[in-house]
Amino acid sequence: MPNGRAKALGAKEGFVKILADARTDRLLGATIIGQRAGDMIAELVLGMEFQASAEDVARTIHAHPTLAEIVKEAALAAGEGALHV
């Protein structure tokens, strides 16, 4: 619930989990459950196609307030740690 857009939508449940290689940080997969999950997965699929790292996703600008900010938080959590969770 730390996401403003999720609060506005009344979306109280859901999560994003990113799986990255421990050695290279390359994206290996993701799980997204909740409202608009289909919209959010597109960013990670594109990242996987271009062999992005979790850090690459975390450093990408995510507009505020959007649900996509949750993807950024998950990417941060795959590395140094999320900001708002």
Would you kindly provide a written description of the structure presented here, covering whatever features stand out?
The model has no long low-confidence stretch (mean pLDDT 88). It contains 4 helices and 2 strands. The chain is globular and about 35 Å long. With 85 residues, the protein is α+β, with helices and mostly antiparallel strands.
Structural class: alpha+beta
Per DSSP, what share of the residues sits in E-state strands of 2 or more residues?
Answer: 15-25%
- In total, the number of strands is 2
Global shape:
globular
- Compute the CA-based radius of gyration: 12 Å
Number of helices, where a helix is a run of at least 4 consecutive DSSP H or I residues:
4
What does the largest sheet look like? 2 strands, antiparallel
Q: How do the helices and strands follow one another from N- to C-terminus?
A: HEEHHH
pLDDT average, as an integer? 88
Q: Estimate the helix proportion, in percent.
A: 40-55%
Termini separation: 9 Å
Uncertain spans, ≥5 residues at pLDDT below 50?
none
Give the strand order of the largest sheet, numbering strands 1, 2, ... along the chain. Answer: 1-2
Provide a short characterization of the protein structure.
The protein has helices at 4-9, 37-49, 54-59, 69-77, and strands at residues 15-20, 27-33.
